[in-house]
Write a structure and sequence with these properties.
The structure is a single chain. The protein is an alpha+beta fold and 90 residues long. It is 17% helix and 40% strand. The chain has one domain: Nuclear Transport Factor 2, Chain: A, CATH 3.10.450. The chain has a four-stranded antiparallel beta sheet, with helices on one face. The chain is globular.
């Protein structure tokens, strides 16, 4: 079984492959959970959404962080699903 470090690394690598042409800024590890049956790692990552090319001095990022939730097989780290988590409304 892979550990949390390997699972999060595989999720980060896959996220970068999904958006090869975009600068995602610093990808952050947010959460990890090993399911009760030890079959899956659930890994949550966040990243900033890049803006189209802007003028000098303009921030390269706007808005809140984006999140992706990865479900990986704990045995080998194979990606089984990628989801956008539901946003909690206050």
């Amino acid at each position: 079984m892979i550990d949390v470090n390997e699972a999060s690394g595989k999720a980060i690598d896959h996220l970068k492959k999904l958006y090869p042409e975009q600068d995602l800024g610093k990808v952050l590890f947010e959460e990890a959970e090993l399911t009760d049956d030890d079959k899956f790692w659930i890994i949550t990552l966040s990243y900033k959404t890049p803006v189209a090319a802007g003028g000098l001095g303009q921030s390269m990022f706007v808005g809140d962080r984006c999140y992706k939730v990865f479900k990986l097989l704990s045995e080998n780290g194979e990606i089984r699903s990628i989801k956008n988590p539901a946003l909690k409304q206050a």
